[in-house]
Write a structure and sequence with these properties.
By secondary structure, the protein is α/β, with parallel strands linked by helices. Strands 4-3-5-7-6 form a 5-stranded mixed beta sheet, with helices on both faces. It has a 5-stranded mixed beta sheet with strand order 12-13-14-15-16. Strands 17, 18, 20, 21 and 22 form a 5-stranded antiparallel beta sheet that branches. It has 2 domains: about 400 residues, 3-Layer(aba) Sandwich (Rossmann fold); about 90 residues, ANL, C-terminal domain (GMP Synthetase, Chain A, domain 3), CATH 3.30.300.30. Helix content is about 30%, strand content about 25%.
């Protein structure tokens, strides 16, 4: 299905005030249609709205007010989704946190957010139950509820209220709270749903953590905008992904490249039977070898996109009616502008590399309680500095080159880790890799590669050195290669380079 052109002014004018309008509007159209399902449980749109209203009443009786922050510690499940919309109903900010974070990490986020109340989806997540026990939470049905924070003060209601406070994974190890408004989320959800041609008959896979902006906006809200069904899964496993694609009637699958790499290990090159219309990758760079192998196994194009938490998240994506052979992240979505600039803020020309700036209804309100960080990211003219470096192809499509902060300087030459990772990931014995720079005694930076090999075909370090030497200039070749059973990753699948 080729999507119709999007009238952005009309779409913006039609946006409701809050995100809980998404299930309410779908329930008004098709109350009995399936909205969400998980292991052993399914709920219609009418049932979801009833659940939302029940939870909204509970939160109200527990003292939650407009402008309060509500910490939700959990993993993907129906109750988590209903609580997100319940917070929206009350005008509170939801602070989704994945239960797989450590206790100190969750405590730091709750303290920084000034959470009025903490909720835990203990019934589906042993980790959430453990966090709840440490916090002195009490059971309430499938949930555990922490004590009320009487010192919490609500934020003002100003017409552009925050819907979600999303804490970034952070490549530096210092997460920031990104304030995303209802308008930010509704805009991206509507546009994403339209560009992907979603219809009520679609069945999407919801394993990307809803605590991450990709899972929240593109997967959850985008799917429900179309009145389609989202099949929730609390955690990713390659076997679970294979089974969902092969046996559960999925028409859409969205994931990060690392998920597809793990699926390929299990599938061993055998094409899967499925009902898929398309697949999408996002959240981290997609290398061309992985893209080709995934398409051969799934039998459909693997589309690509680019976004970041601060842009709610989508900036660009490839179009359904124009699948690409390269790994471009596509054209900017309707309503979003981009600029590629040099160090002086001047537009670069042709296919030159430049810092990527973004402007549109998707751009965050700022970082919570971090005015200096907000001022550094939000530039005059309502531009967001993404921190990424990109170039344009002949048709205007974007190619991500790397991140400014990850740039390695070696003998005066610039080395973007993405370029080295792309070469290493193309080796048939590599599942994924991560490249970082480390200071060397001579004042240079050393290129260090951490490699997760395919357990079925373990390459030696010398074999990987030879592979890189045949494909990279000498200054780009890793000075050190470290083999690891698994690379450290967030629940979203994003590799945590600061841990390396």
């Amino acid at each position: 299905m080729i999507p119709d052109p999007i009238d952005v002014p009309a779409l913006l004018a039609s946006l409701p005030a809050r995100i809980d309008a998404i299930p309410r509007q779908a329930a008004a159209r098709t109350p009995d249609a399936p909205a969400l399902c998980e292991a052993g449980r399914s709920i219609s749109y009418a049932g979801l709205v009833a659940e939302v209203d029940t939870y909204a009443a509970l939160l109200r009786t527990r003292g939650v007010r407009p402008g309060d922050r509500v910490l939700l510690v959990g993993e993907n499940c129906i109750d988590q989704v209903a609580l997100i919309f319940a917070a929206s109903t009350l005008g509170a900010w939801i602070v989704n946190v994945n239960a797989r974070l450590s206790a100190p990490e969750i405590e730091a986020i709750g303290a920084h957010a000034g959470a009025r109340l903490a909720l835990y989806t203990a019934a589906v997540s042993p980790d959430a139950a453990a966090h709840a026990a440490r916090a002195g939470a009490v059971a309430h049905g499938a949930l555990m509820i922490g004590p009320l924070n009487e010192t919490c003060l609500p934020e003002p209601v100003d017409g552009q209220e925050v819907a979600a406070l999303v804490y970034t994974t952070g490549t530096t190890g210092q997460p920031k709270g990104v304030m995303l408004s209802h308008r930010n989320l509704l805009f991206v959800a509507r546009v994403s749903s339209r560009l992907r041609g979603l219809v009520p008959q679609d069945r999407a896979w919801g394993v990307l953590p809803i605590s991450h902006v990709y899972g929240l906006t593109s997967v959850l809200l985008g799917t429900l905008c179309a009145g389609a069904c989202l099949q929730l899964a609390p955690r990713f496993t390659p076997a679970g992904m294979l089974e969902a694609i092969r046996d559960d009637g999925l028409t859409i699958v969205q994931g990060v490249p690392a998920m597809y790499a793990r699926l390929l290990e299990l599938a061993q090159g055998t094409p899967l039977r499925s009902h898929l219309r398309f697949a999408y990758a996002g959240g981290s760079p997609l290398d061309p070898d992985l893209k080709g192998r995934v398409e051969a196994v799934l039998g459909v194009p693997l589309h690509n996109g680019y976004g970041l938490t601060e842009a709610a998240p989508t900036v660009s994506q490839t179009r359904l009616d124009a699948p690409r052979k390269d790994t471009s992240v596509g054209l900017p979505i309707p309503g979003v502008e981009v600029r590629l600039v040099d160090g002086a803020g001047r537009e670069v020309e042709g296919d030159a590399e430049g810092a990527l700036w973004v402007r549109g209804p998707n751009v965050m309100r700022g970082y919570y309680r971090a005015p200096e960080a907000s001022a550094a990211a939000l530039l005059p003219g309502a531009w967001l500095d993404t921190g990424d470096v990109a170039r344009r192809g002949p048709d205007g499509a974007l190619f991500i080159v790397g991140r400014h902060k990850e740039l390695i300087i070696r003998s005066g030459f610039k080395v973007y880790p993405l370029e080295v990772e792309t070469v290493l990931n193309a080796h048939p014995g590599v599942t994924q890799s991560a490249v970082v720079g480390r200071p060397a005694p001579d004042g240079n930076e050393e290129v260090v590669a951490f490699v997760q090999p395919d357990p079925r075909a373990l390459p030696s370090v010398d074999a990987l050195r030879d592979w890189a030497a045949a494909r990279l200039a000498p200054y780009k070749r890793p000075g050190r290669i470290v083999l690891m059973d698994a690379l450290p990753a967030a629940a979203s699948g994003k590799i945590l380079k600061h841990a390396l």
